[in-house]
Amino acid sequence: xxxxxxxxxxxxxxxxxxxxxxxxxxxxxxxxxxxxxxxxxxxxxxxxxxxxxxxxxxxxxxxxxxxxxxxxxxxxxxxxxxxxxxxxxxxxxxxxxxxxxxxxxxxxxxxxxxxxxxxxxxxxxxxxxxxxxxxxxxxxxxxxxxxxxxxxxxxxxxxxxxxxxxxxxxxxxxxxxxxxxxxxxxxxxxxxxxxxxxxxxxxxxxxxxxxxxxxxxxxxxxxxxxxxxxxxxxxxxxxxxxxxxxxxxxxxxxxxxxxxxxxxxxxxxxxxxxxxxxxxxxxxxxxxxxxxxxxxxxxxxxxxxxxxxxxxxxxxxxxxxxxxxxxxxxxxxxxxxxxxxxxxxxxxxxxxxxxxxxxxxxxxxxxxxxxxxxxxxxxxxxxxxxxxxxxxxxxxxxxxxxxxxxxxxxxxxxxxxxxxxxxxxxxxxxxxxxxxxxxxxxxxxxxxxxxxxxxxxxxxxxxxxxxxxxxxxxxxxxxxxxxxxxxxxxxxxxxxxxxxxxxxxxxxxxxxxxxxxxxxxxxxxxxxxxxxxxxxxxxxxxxxxxxxxxxxxxxxxxxxxxxxxxxxxxxxxxxxxxxxxxxxxxxxxxxxxxxxxxxxxxxxxxxxxxxxxxxx
Amino acid sequence: xxxxxxxxxxxxxxxxxxxxxxxxxxxxxxxxxxxxxxxxxxxxxxxxxxxxxxxxxxxxxxxxxxxxxxxxxxxxxxxxxxxxxxxxxxxxxxxxxxxxxxxxxxxxxxxxxxxxxxxxxxxxxxxxxxxxxxxxxxxxxxxxxxxxxxxxxxxxxxxxxxxxxxxxxxxxxxxxxxxxxxxxxxxxxxxxxxxxxx
Lengths: 616, 198
What we know:
The structure holds two protein chains of two kinds.
Chain A: E1 12-16, H1 17-27, E2 32-35, H2 42-52, E3 58-61, H3 65-76, E4 82-87, H4 88-93, H5 95-104, E5 110-116, H6 130-136, E6 140-141, H7 146-163, E7 167-172, H8 173-176, E8 178-183, H9 200-203, H10 207-229, E9 236-238, E10 242-246, H11 248-260, E11 267-271, E12 274-276, H12 280-288, E13 292-296, H13 302-314, E14 320-321, H14 336-347, H15 377-389, E15 394-395, H16 422-433, E16 437-443, H17 444-460, E17 465-471, H18 501-507, E18 512-516, H19 521-533, E19 537-543, H20 547-552, E20 561-563, H21 572-577, E21 582-585, E22 588-591, H22 601-605, E23 611-613
Parallel strand pairs in A: 2-3, 2-4, 4-5, 5-7, 6-7, 10-11, 10-13, 13-14, 15-16, 16-17, 17-19, 18-19
Antiparallel strand pairs in A: 1-8, 6-12, 9-11, 20-23, 21-22
Chain B: E1 4-11, H1 16-30, E2 34-39, E3 48-55, E4 70-73, H2 76-81, E5 91-95, H3 102-105, H4 114-124, E6 127-131, H5 133-140, H6 146-156, H7 164-174, H8 180-196
Parallel strand pairs in B: 1-4, 4-5, 5-6
Antiparallel strand pairs in B: 1-3, 2-3
Helix pairs in contact in B: 1-7, 5-6, 5-8, 6-8
């Protein structure tokens, strides 16, 4: 049985934050869960997906976050406990349903999780999604630790049902990807079938209805504020005159800092775990006996601005600070030493930071940038597109996935990327705005996510570009989740349909559609050349399974290649495709037989035919 | 227990996340609080994997630059790269077997001299144990056991206060049965190599 399904209250176990969150949902009796995978949220859905195969939990990988939220909204309005999770930028995609779902509300408990990524470990921006809670009028909870994440998940469903409102649970990477001991609680029974009761005056958001709903929404938020005022998730530690208000992981950095600085007696720390709406009375009372207040929050001055407004209303003239050139930044993430130093400097506490080691005599250390895997079909496709384009001045809009790495030399096939699906729509724009040839790249999962509408636009508005859909049969970057083009029967899972991308693209009205097998280099280059010559929208489907995934499924029978004596040392292979299986020994190119998967792309481009299979 | 901060750095595929899990289990068995944070965005694509493990009473789960009490490096150039995480009080344990980055493999970068790396670490930090964990893992029966060899060396240092028995129990609970014997050999070889290091 899945370890998170164990009905063993009191069991203490080391869990990843994302596992603790999944467990919290299970303990709360979640019946219905939807997602589109995205780091740092992906392990939550992976665990729920696994558990759904062993229980009556309904789980789906939806095609994108907007779809996921709408599917979940229906379940939550049929009375089920529903959980919808995504990475922070995913909530932008889901923002349309989010803002009006807040008006409509829910009948079953609904939790929406936004996994924010300060410092952008694996994201294109570090937007602070707490503003969605304020923007949309959603109660918000922010865990500061792994065990608290589980407790908040449990509570979030109760809160949602009390208010008939979806609740936003906002995490950061350091919660999702930290491990700590968690104690299992009891498991509430799951109600897996609901009933939708018609209620047009709440559920059909024509203007006349929505005007009423907006009034009710503000009333709900007043009620949320009352609950927030006495929430256990907003504790105050200490009773000193130096006030600290902190959220999320910053709370623990502050807690450790006052201890390290020996000023526990002089400080009091308010943790805002229930942080939207802000607990007005609690904060005003907190401020009253403070000489000075420091607000510690990664990202924007979300709490600080409101705290200052509260102080103004109370006529309090005490210094309140957080974001400033001499204190905390709006950039990146915080760490314990940074928080300790800023607490010391702001409150005038004596503190000598640890002496930094000098970097004298340390030689340069070669970087270790991420690289496409050995035998990755994207590398072959990028190489072939470059060859087919020849001297053409091409712009390569790309998209979000492993293949974004194609922007690195020597492949240099990535010129513009802003968000999921943008490769297709920006190609429309570049094609019209310039005379340059546009060749763009999108993965299969990303195409389903948000590439299709862009392609419809391209057909309708008669745009001019070539779109390469990299069909590797999985959502590779986030850990090989399925997508609508995947044959689920291969995994012994029934109850799934399958969408054929080629048929779909033809049905959208794209007139020039071709298919390549990227490991057949010459033929692929010819096919790509034809597509590039076509005036209008052409689509190339590059079909080859993800090597890493194929290996994990035992579908790949690696057959290593070697460099024979015929090699005359052009190094074309290394310089043009840069597969990580190459290495140079005594000035000669060699292939690491342990990592070579035998895609044979290098063998086909070697002018001397010097690369040959290793004989068994 | 007083707070002890351990940084582990490795290259994707070297098994440092499993090593963290074993240490977490050992902490559970030993009744020590522990919080760990991992950064592994591009691990499978040849990037660097870093784990921060905080044992004891502190409640933060990450470690600031210059504040690691122990640095355990799975690859010598990565150990050196993590020097900014250390102070003059940091104990360093490193593997000496190299995994050159791709740029070096294709002749477009220079790998620092390993003897020089060792000297620098020894001069700048409190102590150094440098062992060829790859050779010892092979001796134990599997090149995959580099992580467990290094755990042996870490436990020998006594910095975590875990008994050998508790860590062996954690290895039994957290690693695959098929590799258990090799892993136990690897742990012992790493422990002894650290004992004999001078």
